[in-house]
Amino acid sequence: DDAIPIHDLLERPFREARDEALARFETAYFTAGLARHDGNVSRLAEAAGIARNYVHRLLRRNGIRRTYTKS
Question: Considering only CA atoms, which of 71, 63, 66 is closest in space to residue 44?
Answer without folding.
Answer: 66
